[in-house]
Amino acid sequence: MASKLKPVFISAYVTLLAVGSIQALYNIVFKSPIGGWVGVLLALGPMLYFFIKLFMTDTARTDPELRNYRLLTWLGGLITVYFGWSTPDYAIQILYSGFVGIFGIALYLNWYSKFENRETTALSVGNPLPDFILQDENGNSISSDAFIGSPTLIIFYRGNWCPLCMAQIKEVSAQYQQLADLGVAVALVSPQPHENTRNLAKKFSVPFKFLVDTENAAAKKLGIFAEDGTPKGLELLGYDSDTVMPTVIITDAQGNIIFADLTDNYRVRPEPDTFIQILKEHTVAP
């Protein structure tokens, strides 16, 4: 049940942040008294800015607790109460600041952002990478056995719609030459439509393997499947409602797992230098 509520929550949350911020700004400019609406704008605006900023970032991680954003949200709520309590718009102001602002950010941080039950024996370090079948961007089948023969960095990402996934791919692309010099292959895997994967491959123009996990078959086998993990509404753009939890796997040339990052927060991905460090620690790379 919780997994089905998450995609509805995130779409509704961002929409209400935008609507409330616009309404607050309108009332500040054209109406009076404005004190309560200033509080509403402060309670909603920072998180709206946060989501807009996500789509422009080149960094695949944020502060897990978003401390500054929480502080501004609570400050906005206090301003709303102090200045708005005697005004005709007090009820709607409290709804925006208290419910959408304070309650919304609490749900986003403590519930939506986090994954549960990420432990999976299929990705235990030292074990061989399980067998599974993927497809390239043109629909040709590729077995996980194709990763044997060279150390491989495998990144399971949610899709082109996910800004932090795109930032993570940007970071790895910037490391391309260093990884290539070490003999490391890179495979990027997503359950998104093939056309989206082809577009991504054209965008980055690096010799990575851009692969598709049809119907999340590999994700289910590896224990990293995210049922109803796609925000509501993205189905209109061709994305399936199910997706994958962001996961990074590094295998050695024999196909054994030497590193697996199963983040419990979608906003926290490994630092890009971590991959090089892991490879050197396991003497996979010189």
TrEMBL record:
Keyword Membrane: yes
UniProt-recorded Gene Ontology molecular function terms: thioredoxin peroxidase activity
Catalytic reactions of this protein: a hydroperoxide + [thioredoxin]-dithiol = an alcohol + [thioredoxin]-disulfide + H2O
Catalytic activity, EC: 1.11.1.24
Entries under InterPro entries matching the protein: AhpC/TSA, Peroxiredoxin_BCP/PrxQ, Thioredoxin-like_sf, Thioredoxin_domain
Matching SUPFAM superfamilies: Thioredoxin-like
Pfam families, per database record: AhpC-TSA (PF00578)
Record's GO cellular component terms: cytoplasm
Thioredoxin domain sequence ranges: 123-284
UniProt keyword list: Antioxidant, Disulfide bond, Membrane, Oxidoreductase, Peroxidase, Redox-active center, Transmembrane, Transmembrane helix
Chain segments annotated as transmembrane: 34-56, 68-85, 91-109
UniProt keyword Disulfide bond present: yes
Any GO BP: cellular response to oxidative stress
Family affiliation: Belongs to the peroxiredoxin family. BCP/PrxQ subfamily.
Function: Thiol-specific peroxidase that catalyzes the reduction of hydrogen peroxide and organic hydroperoxides to water and alcohols, respectively. Plays a role in cell protection against oxidative stress by detoxifying peroxides and as sensor of hydrogen peroxide-mediated signaling events.
Protein name per its UniProtKB record: thioredoxin-dependent peroxiredoxin
Organism: Oleiphilus messinensis
